[in-house]
C-alpha cells in the first residue's frame, strides 16, 4: 500500500524541499576548479546545522555508515560518491545529491554541474539527464501510471544515444527518505505486471534519472559506496521530490515561487533551478 499524503503534509514537505533547494544553491556556488568535494559537503553540513534540520544521508547504514551529508560523484562516478580530498578540475562534472528532514518530513534532490567548460558530448549528457527529469515531471501531469512515464523516459535517453542506469531507481518519500514505491527510469514487462502504480493525488516520489554515456552497467568501488560506470565513461544524475496534487505535479525541491521567498532566511544568490 502506498502512503498518500494530505495537502497539509505536502505543504510540510515543500518546506523541507525549500531547505534542500537552498543547500543546493550554496553547493553550486562553490563548484570551481581547485575546490575539494569535502569542502562542498562541509558547507552543506554547516547550512543544515544552521537551519536545524536533520541531514538524511549521514549515517545511512551499509558495510560502513555513509560518512557525509552529500553524495558527491565526479565524472565516471554515478551515485553515492563519498566527499573527500578530491580536487575538482576544469572539464569535470560533479553530481551533488543531498536531502534533509524538517519537522519530520523529507526532501531529496540532486544536480550535476559542469566544472568550467566541458566538451559538447558531456554537455549533451547533462542536457539529456536534466531534460529527461523535466519530461518526467511534465508527463506526471497527463499519464495515469508511472510505467507510461518511465517508458517515455527510456526512449528519450535512447534517442540521445545514452543509457539509463537500471541498478538504481527513485523512490517514494515522506516521513522517511525511502518509502514505497520504487520508481525506475525505464519500464520492463515485469515492472508493468507486478510493480506499476497509479499517479494519483497525494503520491509523493523522488524521481532521479541516472544516465551514462556508455554502458548502463555500474560497479561499486572499494570504499563500499561509490558506484562507478563499468567502462569509465561519464555519468550524470538529476533528482527532484515531486508531489501529485489536484492541480498537477508540484516540484517540492524547486526554487521558491513568488510569495515563498519571505520564508527563506539563508544565503540565496540565484532563483534558477
Ligand atoms: Mg533519492
Features:
273 residues, alpha+beta, Creatine Amidinohydrolase, 5-stranded antiparallel β-sheet, 4-stranded antiparallel β-sheet, 24% strand, disordered C terminus, binds magnesium ion
Model description:
By secondary structure, this protein is an alpha+beta fold. The chain has one domain (7-221, 229-251): Creatinase/methionine aminopeptidase superfamily (Creatine Amidinohydrolase), CATH 3.90.230. The chain is built from five helices and 15 strands. The protein is globular and about 45 Å long. 45% of the residues are buried. Bound molecules: magnesium ion. Residues 108, 171, 206, 208, 239 line the site of magnesium ion.
Quick structural gist:
By secondary structure, this protein is α+β, with helices and mostly antiparallel strands. It has helices at about 5-30, 35-50, 120-140, 145-160, 190-195, and strands at about 55, 70-75, 75-80, 95-100, 105-115, 165, 170, 180-185, 205, 210, 220, 225-230, 235, 240-245, 250.
Write the layout of secondary structure elements.
Elements: H1 7-30, H2 37-51, E1 54-55, E2 70-74, E3 77-79, E4 93-102, E5 105-114, H3 120-139, H4 146-160, E6 163-164, E7 170-172, E8 179-183, H5 189-195, E9 204-207, E10 210-212, E11 218-220, E12 227-229, E13 235-237, E14 240-245, E15 248-251
Antiparallel strand pairs: 1-4, 2-4, 3-12, 4-5, 6-10, 7-8, 7-9, 9-14, 10-13, 11-12, 14-15
Helix pairs in contact: 1-2, 3-4
This protein binds magnesium ion (MG).
Amino acid at each position: 500500500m502506498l502512503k498518500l499524503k494530505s495537502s497539509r503534509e505536502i505543504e510540510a514537505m515543500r518546506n523541507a524541499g525549500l531547505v534542500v533547494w537552498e543547500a543546493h544553491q550554496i553547493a553550486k556556488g562553490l563548484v570551481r576548479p581547485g575546490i575539494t568535494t569535502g569542502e562542498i559537503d562541509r558547507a552543506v553540513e554547516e547550512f543544515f546545522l544552521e537551519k536545524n534540520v536533520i541531514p538524511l544521508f549521514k549515517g545511512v547504514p551499509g558495510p560502513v555508515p555513509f560518512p557525509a551529508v552529500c553524495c558527491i560523484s565526479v565524472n565516471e562516478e554515478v551515485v553515492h560518491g563519498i566527499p573527500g580530498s578530491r580536487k575538482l578540475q576544469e572539464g569535470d562534472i560533479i553530481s551533488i545529491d543531498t536531502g534533509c528532514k524538517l519537522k519530520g518530513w523529507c526532501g531529496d534532490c540532486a544536480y550535476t554541474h559542469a566544472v568550467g567548460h566541458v566538451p559538447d558530448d558531456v554537455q549533451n549528457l547533462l542536457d539529456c539527464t536534466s531534460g529527461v527529469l523535466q519530461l518526467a515531471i511534465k508527463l506526471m501531469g497527463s499519464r495515469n501510471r508511472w510505467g507510461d512515464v518511465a517508458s517515455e523516459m527510456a526512449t528519450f535517453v535512447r534517442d540521445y544515444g545514452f543509457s539509463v542506469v537500471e541498478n538504481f531507481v527513485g523512490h517514494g518519500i515522506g516521513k522517511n527518505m525511502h518509502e514505497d514505491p520504487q520508481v525506475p527510469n525505464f519500464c520492463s514487462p515485469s515492472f508493468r505486471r507486478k510493480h506499476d502504480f497509479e499517479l494519483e493525488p497525494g503520491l509523493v516520489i523522488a524521481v532521479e534519472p541516472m544516465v551514462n554515456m556508455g554502458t548502463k552497467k555500474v560497479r561499486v568501488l572499494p570504499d563500499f559506496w561509490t558506484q562507478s560506470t563499468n567502462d569509465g565513461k561519464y555519468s550524470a544524475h538529476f533528482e527532484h521530490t515531486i508531489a501529485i496534487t489536484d492541480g498537477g505535479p508540484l516540484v517540492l525541491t524547486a526554487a521558491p515561487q513568488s510569495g515563498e521567498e519571505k520564508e527563506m532566511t539563508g544565503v540565496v544568490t540565484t532563483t534558477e533551478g
